[in-house]
Amino acid sequence: MVGTGFQNIFKIPELKKRITYTLLLLIVYRVGVHVPTPGIDGDALASFFSRAQGTLFGLFDMFSGGALERLSVFALGIMPYISASIILQLLTVVIPTLERLSKEGEAGRKKITQYTRYGTIVLGVIQSLMISVGLEQMTSPGGAPVVLIPGWSFRIMTIITLTAGTAFIMWLGEQITERGIGNGISMIIFAGIVAGMPVAIGNTFRLLSTGEMGVFIVLILIVLMVAVVATIIFMERGQRRIPVQYAKRIVGRRMYGGQSTHLPMKINMAGVIPPIFASSIIMFPATIASFIKVPWMESVVQAMSPNTIWYNLFYVGCIIFFCYFYTAVTFNPADVADNMKKHGGYIPGIRPGKRTADYIDKVLTRITLGGALYVSVVCVLPTLLIYRFNVPFYFGGTALLIVVGVAIDTVAQMESHMMARHYEGFMKRGQMKGRM
Q: Mean pLDDT across the stretch 287-309?
């Protein structure tokens, strides 16, 4: 049973230690979100952001866990690190040196991770400089300046503070991945989104009590969110199972193989990475443009507001691209076909080797298209509907996909720890046997 599964967590010292470690680091992250950057008038900044709901600032603030609205030391969030990761992965495809490094095993991956860290610092410096310049031009609705003492001293302090905050978040994410449970970067974004849910629920009840939002609209939103969550769970667990047959082999006096199995291929093999990457690609240049008061840049920012058709078309295009790109990076059909051939495995009706690799690639291309379209619909359609209902917070399909997707992946990791030590998982024993 589910209750028994949760009780088993505390019977495994390593799993208990990993979960505790993850929670402690997430608490450190949430504390840092409330540490303000020096030289800022908090009230004037809060007044400015009260007008920013439903804009690109609202989206950025969601990913930073509310740190941008407070302009805390974590205001840049983890987005510079994600942007640097995207750039390095794209460069790996086109630069032979980086491609060779990626194939050198652990040593090569460490080198690429080091380059990603350097890139994060560079992007953090650029973004924090643009933000500091833009803050000096901001005023509250009452005309009060956001920056108390503008100038290069404020800019340098902001660059150092925000870049150091991003570097610290990057370190937290790496520590969670290595010593905790789940993917560290995804867990940090997950924690930021979840932390904003109580405030969003409180605002909804406040508008409901004052009559600014009708009961019928709230019920529609609840039904919509439940439907989206159910769709995400169903699709994230969906698989295309390719049958695989292993030929019988005689080694000495024993016979091996001969069994039938399958190659499971998830419909959405890229998980929550595509919407996170797509959001990062959109927010990095748009954030810089938001703080530079040039007429053509301001028109670009308005055109890329989350409720416009141009934003959503570009967003969907980025999601589809990263679904294919990330799947290609993490899953190589040629390697899978070679491993099957080495162990005497084959797909019935398909010749081993290149024919098998081509068949797997064909199946993978088709299901990735379905997965990409599903992710696009989940991320865009609920968001458009929520904007239509004038919901006073940014919590659309992207947030739901990240929250549910990260929760499913984290539970799966916890379950694998328990099953490896002969404990029941979160599902019933009979169901687990059926899945094996």
A: 67
DSSP annotation of 149 reads S
Beta-bridge mates of residue 265:
240
Q: How many domains does the chain have?
A: 1
Report whether 74 contacts 33 (CB < 8 A): yes
pTM greater than the 0.85 cutoff:
no
The residue among 370, 346, 418, 435 whose CA lies nearest residue 181 is: 418
Higher-pLDDT residue of 416 and 180 is 180
Q: 10 Å Cβ neighbour count for 277?
A: 23
Q: Outline where DSSP puts E strands in 282-417.
A: 345-346
Reference 185, options 112, 104, 262, 116; nearest CA is 116
Q: Rounded to an integer, what distance in angstroms lies between the CA atom of residue 88 and that of residue 85?
A: 5
Q: How far apart are CA 269 and CA 286, in angstroms?
A: 29
For residue 241, what is the enclosing H or E element? strand 239-246
Amino acid identity of residue 80, one-letter, is P
Question: Which amino acid appears at position 285 of this protein?
Answer: P
At a CB cut-off of 8 Å and minimum separation 6, what does 4 contact?
424
- SS3 for 423-436 is CCCCCCHHHHHHHC
What 8-state DSSP symbol labels residue 181? S
pLDDT computed for residue 1 by the predictor: 45
Task: Give every CB contact of residue 353 below 8 A, 6+ residues apart in sequence.
Answer: 337, 338, 341
Say if residues 165 and 74 touch (Cβ distance below 8 Å): yes
Residue 121, token pair as written in the block:
């610092």
Domain span at 164: 2-435
Confidence category of residue 387, pLDDT binned at 50, 70, 90: low
Give dist(CA 415, CA 138) in Å, integer: 49
Arithmetic mean of pLDDT, 323-351: 84
Which contiguous run of DSSP H or E holds residue 239?
A: strand 239-246
Closest CA to 268 of 184, 361, 370: 370
Contact assessment for residue 404 and residue 375, using Cβ atoms and an 8 Å cutoff: no
379, 276 Cβ separation under 8 angstroms: no
- pLDDT tens for each residue of 230-256: 888 888 888 888 888 877 665 555 655
Cβ 387 vs Cβ 306: under 8 Å: yes
Count of beta carbons in the 10 Å neighbourhood of residue 208: 14
**Residue 39 contacts residue 147 (beta carbons within 8 Å):** yes
Domain CATH for 396:
1.10.3370.10
